[in-house]
Structures are given as C-alpha cells and as structure tokens.
Write a structure and sequence with these properties.
Blueprint: H1 11-18, H2 21-29, E1 42-47, E2 50-56, H3 71-96, H4 102-109, H5 113-141, H6 143-162, H7 167-195, H8 198-227, H9 231-236, H10 238-252, H11 266-289, H12 293-315, H13 324-327, H14 330-346, H15 350-361, H16 365-372, H17 374-390, H18 396-411, H19 426-439, H20 443-448, H21 456-485, H22 494-519
Antiparallel strand pairs: 1-2
Helix pairs in contact: 3-7, 3-8, 3-10, 5-6, 5-7, 5-11, 5-21, 6-7, 6-10, 7-21, 8-16, 8-17, 11-12, 11-21, 14-18, 14-19, 14-21, 14-22, 15-16, 17-19, 18-19, 18-22, 21-22
C-alpha cells in the first residue's frame, strides 16, 4: 500500500511526467507492484482503482519524462492487446461465420435444416451459459493458463468441425468450440485490465471494442468467401489463428497468480450455467418455432434453477459465484442493463431486417450482407476513432448518448412505412452502429469499475453474458412480431411489422437510459488523480 499523497499543486502534470508505462505494465501483468530503482521517498497515488507509482524525489531521469522503451519492450507491451483482440475476433466471428455456409453443409452431410440449426444454436448456448462460471474459474486458476488452454481447445474443436463426417459430430465439436469461446471471452477483458492503466487502458478497450464490431461484419462476409473453397475451409481457417495466439500467449504473457485456494463453488456453477443456457435455448426455440411446449417447459425449469441458485448463493456467501458485493454494486448492475439493452435493440433486430430485405425486396444473400454491413462499419469507425476519448468521460455520458442514438436508429426501422424502398433502412443501421460503437469501448472498464482485481473475471463475464442474453431475447421478440403480423403471407404487412419492432426496441433503449440516469451518480473523470 503506498503512503498517503501530500498536496501537489499540479498533480496531473506530475503524473504524466513520472509514470513509467513499460515498468508499470510489466509489473501489473505479473501481478505485482514494482518500485522504481532510484533512491528517495516514494510518492504514490491511486489512479482508477489501482496503485500507480508517480516517481521519487530527486530522480533526474524523471525531469524530461520516461525514456523511450526499446523496440522489444514495445512489442512485448502490445502483446496482451494483440492476443486479446485475436481471441475476441475468433470467438465472435465464429458465432456467425457458419450461417452463410449452411446450405452447402446441409447438402454435403445430407441433413435437414432443423438438425443443422443446432450447429449455430449450440455455440450460442454454450457461450452464454458458461461465461460466468468460466469467469469465476479464470479468477481462481489464473487468466494466462485458462486463455492458453482455451485457445488450444478452440483450435482442436475447429479442426474437428472441419473433419466432421456427420452432423452429430459437427454439433458436438461446435459445443466444444462454444465452450472454448466462453473461456476466451472470460479472460480477454481481465487480461487487458491487468496489463494496462491510464490512457493506455482506454486505448486498449477502444481497440478491443472496434475489433468486436469488425468481427460481426467479417463473420458473414468471410464465411461466404471461404465457403467457395468448401464449408470445411470455414472451420479450418480458425486453426492457424488460434494456435498462433496460443504460441504468443505462452511466449509473451507472464504467469499470473491464482486468486485463491478455497474450494470452487461447483454447485453454483452448474446451477447458473444450466439456468442461463436453458433460458437462451428457450428463446432460440421460440424465435424459430414460435410458442411451443418444449420452450415453455424449459422456461419453467430455468425459473426453478434460478431460484435454487439464488438460495444456494445466500446460504454460502463465502463461496458465492457472483456475490452480494457485486450484485450490490450500482455501476455493475447498470452496466449489465445497458449491455443487454443495446444488444437487444441493435443486433436482435438484424434477422428480421434480413427477412424483410429478402421477402419484400427480393435481395440475394450477398446483397443482404452488404446492406447489413452498414451497421458494423459504423460501429467499427465510431469505436476506433472515439473510443479512447469516450473512456475518459463520466460513464453516464457515453452510456446515455449511445442509448439515445441507438434508440433513434431503432425508430428509423419504421421508415419503410413512409418510404417503402430498402434504402430507407440504411439510416437506422448506421445510427444503431454509431450508438453501439459509443457504448462498446466503455463497457469493459465500467464492468470492472470498483471491483476487486480477483473478481474482474466474473464481473466482465457477467456483463458479456448479459449481452448474449440481450441479443437472444431481441431475436425472439422480433420473431414474435413477425409471427403476429405474418408478413410472409402478404408483403404489404411488413411496414406494420417494422413499426412494431421499432417501437419495442426504442422503448428498451429508453428504459435503459432511465436506468443509467437513475442508477449512476456523477463521478470525476477516470483520469483524474486522487
């Protein structure tokens, strides 16, 4: 613990002049605080919830700022960001990359689309169900170990998908791939949080957010390109990328310390995973088949499992999976609401929009992918160009602005009722992309604000799970609107269908905006010294 900081007439300037990014980044990545070598009394400061050394009296090396890091030091300092972005790109791209290749897979494996739909759904279910349990596991055994083995497992599962002789093997391999993806998602954000601080941290989260948006766009496009070489090439392409990231992890990331030795809450992990996975599965079944007895039975079972999980958490507070401290954190709660809301509104609507473009306007799949790419392109540009600056603002500003812009884009989904051409939807796609690009780079840091370092894995995983649940619920809600209005029988009903979807998604954004304004208090900028 650093000594108390005496009054400094210009703390921001002293902080900029004194921080040594290379030394600090290596120390934090190794899980320790390293003192500067020069003699003299230490002057410590707290910055954004972590200790940062701000120099020593009488150190002449600090008079002109830190010395430039050698090239090998700069490369090593960027490795956590490179590895995290590669892993995130893989896990998000492979959630959608298979969609375009589905007809080819169905013909080659001689199976129907009903069975083949599980190739997509099982990945989504595993990703959502296992995020929080694996986030807890990463806090306990160390992020480097879990990240390394999950990259190897992702490569092995991708190879199994590429060589699958039948649909059953393909579905099981996708289950393993989705499990590995959940482990990757659970470790990438805590890795960035531990490896960078200050402005470098905001920049890292901004780049991570931009890559997340890019992965959504590249997934469908690259899937279409690779499927020309055969559907097995779609899965085989992931193997070298995952193995390369695993090698970089083994070589460049230092070993981190496990978070504790108390027994794992295996019962809680199973209960929560089953409840969340079942909930996502029920929403997907509802979206595909409408009201169904199986979906209703799964929802009832999920409610029972959720209740048992809550009772188990209350009876074992010392081994709680999420814990009252995290649930009671207003920043965490609000961040989870925002994550679910903007994924619901921005991305849950895309299948319905795609159906409208095909059914009402007769666009080919390639043309539909091109139209929909307006959203992830806007997402990527917004996050890449402004994400680092947004991270230094009060959390309420980007959350509110992003939700308002995203909600405005959702209202734009009603424009086809006034202008029937497909071009009328472009403004809605761009606005939802811009709004999402404002929220996404801020979300990771907000998920871990005020959370102990030993709990950042579970907090970031819970927020990412909220995003997965939001998009699943959004898809189901939009499917319900399509099912009620039945525009497939009469394309003239599409405008009313889109108006219903527009109002529902805009209302979700409005509710989340109210939660931000009521749930978050104004606080100083994250860059302000204590």
């Amino acid at each position: 613990m650093s000594p108390r900081v005496p009054h400094d007439p210009c703390p921001a300037a002293r902080y900029r002049d004194a921080v040594r990014p290379a030394d600090h980044g290596a120390a934090v990545a190794a899980g320790e605080h390293r003192e500067a070598p020069a003699p003299g009394p230490v002057r410590g400061a707290r910055h954004a919830g972590r200790e940062t050394f701000v120099g020593r009296e009488g150190d002449p090396a600090l008079a002109h700022g830190p010395a430039p890091a050698p090239p090998e030091g700069r490369v090593k300092r960027q490795m956590p960001l490179v590895i995290s972005c590669t892993a995130t790109f893989l896990l998000l791209a492979y959630a959608t990359v298979v969609t375009v290749a589905m007809p080819v897979i169905a013909a080659d494996l001689r199976t129907g689309f009903g069975a083949l739909q599980w190739v997509i759904d099982i990945y989504t279910i595993a990703l959502a169900a296992l995020l929080v349990p694996l986030g807890t596991l990463s806090d306990r055994i160390g992020r480097r170990s879990l990240l390394l083995w999950s990259l190897v497992a992702f490569a092995a599962a991708s190879l199994a998908c590429a060589s699958a002789p039948g649909v059953l093997v393909l579905v099981l391999a996708r289950l393993v791939q989705g499990t590995a993806a959940a482990a990757l998602f659970a470790t990438t954000l805590p890795l960035l949080d531990a490896s960078y601080s200050g402005r470098a941290r905001h920049r890292a989260f901004a780049i991570w957010g931009a890559v997340s948006g890019l992965a959504a766009a590249v997934g469908n496009v690259s899937g279409g390109l690779l499927s020309a070489l055969g559907w097995r090439a779609v899965f085989a392409a992931a193997v070298p990328l995952a193995l390369a990231a695993a090698v970089l992890t083994a070589v460049f990331l230092p070993r981190d310390r496990p978070g504790g030795r108390s027994p794992l809450n295996a019962t809680g992990m199973v209960l929560l995973g089953a409840a969340v996975g079942g909930l996502v599965a029920a929403t997907l079944v509802f979206a595909e088949h409408g009201p169904h007895m199986s979906a209703t039975a799964v929802l009832v079972a999920c409610a029972c499992l959720g209740t048992v999980f809550a009772v188990h958490e209350r009876r074992h507070p010392d081994r709680a999976l999420i814990g009252p401290a995290l649930v009671g954190n207003p920043v965490f709660r609000t961040t989870a609401v925002v994550a679910a809301a903007y994924y619901f509104a921005a991305f849950g609507t895309l299948p319905a929009v795609s159906f409208w473009l095909q059914d009402a306007h007769g666009l080919a799949p390639a043309a539909i992918a091109l139209v929909l790419s307006a959203q992830p392109v806007a997402f990527f540009l917004t996050s890449a160009l402004s994400g680092a600056r947004l991270g230094r603002l009060d959390r309420r500003v980007p959350f509110t602005a992003g939700l308002v812009i995203c909600g405005s884009g959702c209202l734009g989904l009603a424009l086809p009722a006034l202008a029937p051409g497909w071009q009328s939807i472009l403004a809605a796609l761009v606005l939802t992309g811009v709004g999402s690009g404002i929220i996404s780079p801020v979300l990771p840091a907000a998920a871990m604000d005020g959370v102990a370092p030993s709990r950042t894995g579970v907090s970031s995983s819970a927020v990412n799970a909220a995003r997965q649940f939001g998009i699943s619920l959004g898809i189901a809600a939009c499917a319900a609107a399509v099912r009620v209005h039945q525009p497939g029988d009469d394309p003239a009903r599409w405008p009313r269908t889109l108006v219903t979807i527009a109002l529902a998604t805009a209302l979700v954004c409005a509710g989340a905006t109210a939660a931000v304004l009521l749930g978050l208090r104004r606080r100083p900028s994250p860059d302000a010294p204590a």
